[in-house]
Structures are given as C-alpha cells and as structure tokens.
Amino acid sequence: MVKVAVVYWSGTGNTEAMAASVAEGAKEKGAEVSLMTCSEFDVAMMDSYDAVAFGCPSMGSEQLEESEFEPMFESCKSKLKDKRIALFGSYGWGSGEWMQNWEETCRSAGAILVCDSVICNEAPDEEGTNNCKELGKALA
Asked: Is this model's pTM higher than 0.85 or not?
C-alpha cells in the first residue's frame, strides 16, 4: 500500500479544504494517507512516505507562507530528489507566479511532480475540489 502525506498550511481554511480533498482522492485509490499541518511535519518524516502533497496559499507578493510553511519546506528540500510529490494552494490575487516558482524549486531539487499543480482562487469550487481529488489519486 502506498503511503501518502498531505502537508499544508492554511490561514483562511481554503487550502485546508483543498488538502482534505487531496487526501480523499488518495484514499479513494487505496493509499494510506496522513493529513497534517506543516507544524506537524518535518524532514525526518520524508522517508516514511512514498509520496507527499504540499499545500500552501500565495502570500504577500506571491510567495509561500514565511513563518511556518517555508521553513518546513526548506528543511525538506534535501529529501525531494526522486520523491513523488504534488503541489496545491489557494490565492486571492495575482497570476499564480508563486506556484510556478515553487514547481521550479522542486524540479531543481530533483522532485518528481506527478501531475499539474492545483491552484484555486479563494475557496475551491466544484472543479477545484475535483482537481484536488485527482491530484491525490495521482500520488496514490
């Protein structure tokens, strides 16, 4: 059985809702799923999972949340080589540049992005929820 971690930070609940849908999709495909906030996850846990979904909204000038999520993610970068991952997050404005930059960071670290990242403007609508479920299935 594939073990999947869904790790996220959410300020308003939008990315948390996305994370729940990612976890649901992975479970539907038979994966063993751990859903947790970024404060509950660290680099020591990376080897315990076959795949990891990281979720973070766009903050400030299209960047990852700086106080909790980014430090956790930076510590995990050394374990991204050949790791199956997927990215998701919400935003309130902008073009999605933060996600493009995040994807490039992951590719540069050698991560295997298993599918297109999912971004939702504000709360996920039906299409966003379905895309999150598909992201979870792709990880499983």
From this structure: yes
